[in-house]
Amino acid sequence: MGSGTLVALVTGAASWRALAHEGHDHGPAATPGTPAATPGATPGATPIAGHDHAHGTNPAAGTGVGGLYLTIANAGPEPDALLGGVTDVCRVVEPHTMQVTDDVASMTFAGAGLPVAADASLELTPEGDHVMLVDLTRDLQPGTTYDITLRFAVAGEVTLTVPVRWDDPSAAGDAATAVTTGALTISNVWTRPAPMIGG
Ligand SMILES: [Cu+2]
């Protein structure tokens, strides 16, 4: 988990977006109308070297991003890993790890996936490791839901319906029923709203 400073920065939605503007590192800003990202790029082919933009939106890139948060409990004897997924709300679904260096949060594409050890749990949160929705195809509006199919190394694929909301469902006492697939139990699934810009 990050430092107190990071939590303070990312807990509120407004400052969450401010963090993106302070923290992103996409090089020279693109001219409006000439997005840096390639629309319609093959999912999985997005360049990720040096990819360390923060949460939120980056108007300069002409794209929007969002975070997917959930808890994965692995009751099996085998380690598993969250590899990625597919959804129609964005073009690319990426597992990300979060690091904090000198109070600056940055994140890294987890090429080998996010590991879930045997008989252990993995919590994905706005302050920590998470799944990133890259290149939104539509706005993520609070009060709505969307479907996403996540892919695990051992458990395979599972489709979840994700509520878009400002706050953590478990903290608010209204987390949806957990979904079980193989040895995995997936709970407390949610996404914080993020506007699509350009794209
Ligand atoms: Cu991320």
Please render the helix and strand layout as text.
Layout: H1 4-11, H2 13-23, E1 57-58, E2 63-74, E3 80-87, E4 90-101, E5 104-109, E6 114-116, E7 120-124, E8 130-136, E9 145-152, E10 156-163, H3 169-172, E11 179-181, E12 184-191
Antiparallel strand pairs: 1-2, 2-7, 2-8, 2-12, 3-6, 3-9, 4-5, 4-8, 9-10, 11-12
Helix pairs in contact: 1-2
The structure holds copper (II) ion (CU).
Residues 96, 107, 130, 132 line the site of copper (II) ion (CU).
Mean pLDDT across all amino acids: 77
Task: Briefly note the structural class of the backbone.
Answer: mainly beta
Strands, total number: 12
Strand % is 35-45%
Radius of gyration: 16 Å
Spans of at least 5 consecutive residues whose pLDDT stays below 50 are 1-62
| Count of helical regions | 3
Question: In which range does the helix fraction lie?
Answer: 10-25%
- Biggest β-sheet description: 8 strands, antiparallel
The distinct bound ligands, ions and cofactors come out as: copper (II) ion
User: What distance separates the N and C termini?
Assistant: 32 Å
The H/E string reads HHEEEEEEEEEEHEE
Shape: globular
